[in-house]
């Protein structure tokens, strides 16, 4: 997922429930409750270039998260 903005989510801006493999790049979460990104059980989410405004936590996970850092 690339170039996406999520606004005013009650719980998570980007939620991946179970058994999901996804990559987020250049995404923005704004005015979201609990977390910008949620990774569920047996999910693997890679992310980079994430910007946050007024979000509880960057990441909440029951699965795997990999921060993707570019040089």
Textual characterization of the structure:
This protein is mainly β and 71 residues long. It has one domain (2-64). The protein has no helices and six strands. The protein has strands spanning 2-7, 12-16, 21-39, 44-48, 51-61, 64-67. Strands 1, 2, 3, 4, 5 and 6 form a six-stranded parallel β-sheet that branches. The model has no long low-confidence stretch (mean pLDDT 90).
Features:
71 residues, mainly beta, 0% helix
Q: Based on CA inertia axes, which overall geometry fits? A: globular
Rg is 11 Å
Strand residues, percent: over 45%
Low-confidence stretches: none
Q: What is the H-and-E element order? A: EEEEEE
Tally of individual domains? 1
Count up the helices. Answer: 0
The average pLDDT score comes to 90
Question: How helix-rich are the residues, as a percent range?
Answer: under 10%
Number of strands: 6
Query: Ends: how far apart?
Result: 20 Å
Helix- and strand-based class? mainly beta
Largest sheet: 6 strands, parallel
Please sum up the structure shown.
This protein is 0% helix and 70% strand.
Q: What is the element layout, followed by pairings?
A:
Elements: E1 2-7, E2 12-16, E3 21-39, E4 44-48, E5 51-61, E6 64-67
Parallel strand pairs: 1-3, 2-3, 3-4, 3-5, 4-6
């Amino acid at each position: 997922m690339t170039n996406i903005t999520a606004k005013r989510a009650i719980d998570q801006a980007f939620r991946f429930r179970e058994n999901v493999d996804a990559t987020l790049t250049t995404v923005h979460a704004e005015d979201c409750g609990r977390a910008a990104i949620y990774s569920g059980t047996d999910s693997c989410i890679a992310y980079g270039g994430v910007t946050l405004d007024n979000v509880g936590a960057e990441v909440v996970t029951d699965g795997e998260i990999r921060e993707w850092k570019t040089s």
